[in-house]
Amino acid sequence: MWVEIICGLVIYILFRRFFYDDDDDSLQIETTDSNALFSVATRLEKLYDGKVYVGLRIPDADTGSRQTIDMVLISKGEAVVISVQNLSGLVSVDADGSWVSNGANNHRSDRHPDPVAEVKRQVAILESYLEQRGAALPEGYFSCKVVCPNPNFRAIRSDYFPPEVVTHEQWAQLKPEPKSLFSGWIKGAFRGGKKEMQEPIHQKLNFILTTAPTWDRLELKGNKYVLGEFLEFKGKHDDTQSLRNVKRSKVSRLIIQKTSMFGLAHSKLQVLYSPRDYRNDGSSASEWKEVTVRSSTEVLFQPQNSTKVRKFKLSSVVSMSLSA
């Protein structure tokens, strides 16, 4: 009887491994913050009929490094730099503007540098970058917000939070109406500018931000996202050779289209990749290239704010986007 049970467990593990694509690293990686970013971005695009650029890495001339910006919303009525604070538990504002959070599941207090001051600094860096790329913006064109989307966020004395902060309660109540919470984001943004300039500026910003540096992006099964840096593929020599053209200088996007099964030992994936076109955003269907590789082929990826390189099986990946 015990032999049958053990054999059954072994078969179940093998079945899960090959058919359900369990990947220890992908299950252990903390994707919560990245998921929050994309959830906020998706809702903003629906609310304001605009374009949200997520995970920007804008060059900072003062420090010689790149500044990570969670997201930028560009619509015909608004231009906003947004910081997403995915904090849970009780959160208060200290006298110096820093935030103190007590997690919902522990009693330890964590201190976070003033998010409002940080996002205002990001606005200045972004404006400088846009100016260098030829976008002459009216004074005060960009505003900023700090969004707290976590449903477990609890503000201690919400009246202590600056007006730039959108608590979870406020976030949940947002409506796509002219008088909604965000309607005043760019109040006075066009001072000194003419109304007819707004549309050309809107188009110019979208073009620049489409080609701006970003973190690479992995979309995993289960609606999970990881921002970071793609390093390389690992696997059998013929598989890595088939994927040798998938590099950021040549490819902007990779999609796992489907799985072909020829027995457990011969599970294959169809991988589509889009040649990079620096003239516009995206490629037509006729430009997509296709290769077939083993499902055990791995993506080596270093998540944002992590020193550890993660391995993700291609079978657990939905798509990958690479920054130029």
Automatic annotation (TrEMBL):
Cleaved signal peptide residues: 1-15
Protein name stated in the entry: NERD domain-containing protein
Keywords: Signal
Domain NERD: 32-149
Signal among keywords: yes
Domain of life (superkingdom): Eukaryota
InterPro entries hit by this protein: NERD (IPR011528)
Pfam families xref list: NERD
